[in-house]
Amino acid sequence: MDAMMLVEVLDVHGHIDFRLRVNGIGGQCRIGRSLSCDVVVDDAFAAGEHTLLTLQADGRVHVQDLATRNGTRVDGRRLEGEDGALIAKGELLIGRTRVLVRTPDAALPPERAFRRDLLRRHRTALAVVGVALCLAFAAFLQWTGAPERLAPRILIAELAAMCILAVWVGAWALVSRLTVGAWQLRMHLAIAAFCLGLWAWGHWLYTIADFALQWQGLGMVMAVAAAAVALAAAYLHLRNATHLRRSVSWMLALLVPPLCGGVWWLADLQLNPHTVNRVSLGARVFPAAPRLAPSTDLGDYLTDIVALKREANRTRQESLLETPIFDADD
Amino acid sequence: MANADLKWAALISLAGLICAAVNQASAATPALITPVAAAAPVVIEPPGSPDGLPDPADLEEPDFAEQQLSNAARVRLDRARDSIVQIRGFFGGARTSAFHGSGFAANGDGLIVTNYHVVSEAVLHPGQFRLEYVTSDNRTGRLRVYAIDVRNDLAVVKAEDLLLPPLRLRTQIPREGERAYSIGFPLNFGLTITEGVANGLVANGFDQRIHYTGAINGGMSGGPALDARGNVYGVNVAVVAGRQLVSLVVPARHIEPLLARAKGPMDRTMSARQAVEMVTAQALTHQAAIFLPGPTPTAAQTVFGFTLPTQIGAAIECNTTGSSESTQQLRIESIVCSAQARLLVQSGLEVGDIRFQHRVIRAQKLHPLQFAERINGVAEAYQRYGAALHVAPFVCKDSLVSLDGFDARVSTCVRQYRLFAGLYDIALTVTSINSAQSAVVSQLDLNGVGFEAGMQFVRRFLEAMRWTP
Fold first, then answer.
1. Does A316 contact B401 at a Cβ distance shorter than 8 Å?
2. Least packed by Cβ within 10 Å: which of A249, B7, B141, B456?
3. What does pTM read for this prediction?
4. CA of B453: which chain A residue's CA is closest?
């Protein structure tokens, strides 16, 4: 096979802007701002004639910086001296412009198989089921409140649920359109509806379990589980839907659980502010629901709550440290 | 004519309705009793007449009886004038006062009696507040607190450079209908006397207070309440807010014991912390009487099968009201109980309050899940009150507890007072879980109580709850 190299200039988004094929041993490609170059880059940080690529007999490419001020970088490393570098494949940085160079010698990664992605294959059905979950929960929530006029309340709740879904789907579809070029509406609807529906029903089931088990640690366990699910889902989604590298995907995914937790915390703060009048009553009661935890004897409970005195003393000390009273404790 | 009659009839029936409504309201909500030390300037409406001058045609010769009354008040005021001082409190080095009240000389040693609530800031924060007197002839000087009686809202103060002629004390409670006068400095308007009628001791009150039907206003706190002979039968203390001329006076019989205790200025004989401990101790002594078991130790009321504690303490009074929602989904009966035994320990802080309520709820046509939602709503809607200045946050413990005949979720929350370390708020919520058709949600609030006494009360409260199908 004859010697050959392919030069590809990328735009700021990483898309290929221009592509040039050079054939034959000794074939050259000059890159720079000057019109005399083979590849002209529109980059204020590039010299008129910036880099010279020469195809060698062994099939590799000789990269030479043409004594420029900013230099040429090959795979992030700046070329030093007059000698240049020999490469079979690499990413050059000329000014701020990225240029990919490869030859037939460079190893091609194997063909990537289509993902047998459940989500993608059944996105229509999943979107329908997810939306149904959300709408059902909105109606259920109204029904448990047993309002005087149920039908209009349900209607309003459904509209509100649809508004939330529409805003969510719209926002992410727009992000998707801007980054990968496709709206992916059904896909985003399926994701949004499932997140919202599972969270709503899951939280309701959690309140039932909280009452049945009467275990203080359940809340923490569920929070950790929810954080793990959010982390995994965010990572998989980023890997599947974007071209981000593994490490970047992990870093972005790690932001998701604290972000969700923060929103939850803020909402809780709004509904039940952390004032001195905040009391916690314990798990919500469901008189008809099955109970797994036995009741405490009254005598035992009365013995237990005596310990509250010490805790109250400690809280007072903390409060006094935070905002002292003048000449109260001399 | 017939038309006019009709109008009158309508008016009369309307007035009847309003009266009924007022009565009901007063029965359902306890009246607010506000101590009358003035803290802020008061805005006063201008008089009705546009030019402020009465029409000469409306002026009449004064009636003889009226002249007698005015003279009587005038004579009392003139005799008492030299014995009365205005007490002003100043924050830090300020030249303008933070609050003010009144006081009067009560014995020949120069001891002056006033209300505890007038001087409470100076007692609790001696480094922050100082007291000064202003006599009727505008002499001023430094005042010091010598003794306090928190329960009776009395204090004894003294200025080393001031010796006023004392007023004579009358320890006997005036009978209903006796002519009475109150003197003080209302709203910083200068020395003022008001005339009214003493109505004996307040019935059903936890603390001894004389009911005076006459005006007492902010700034008159600590001023003397005089009988027809000009003797001091009590000390102006409070007014029932939003009511007409219902004023309260502390009987003079509590003054002598306090004068005997006034040995020296408190800010020199004890630290600020000791003063706080003294106030706490007096508040706890005051409460001990409330925590005694009530007239019938097992006083209880049975609603829909739930037997619920009512008058389980000495001064606890209860009301029962029923309500039925318009949709007939639920029937709710409420028993609301409280002990009118609040005690002011600091400006803006009253302790020793006991309140509880039981809401017995029965579902008519509700699914168990809908019923559960309602019960939770009732339990969660209940609001606790307290200022971050006075109390630390609550710490809570909840559990499913088996009570007599039924299981319930019992949540107990406790918080300690920041300045008064010996006082606690205890908030208890009991939510029954034995039936999907009927439930009781009980809330108990003990505000500013001793921890052990409060826990004893919680025990008595929980042990008195029973369910019989």
1. no
2. B7
3. 0.78
4. A306
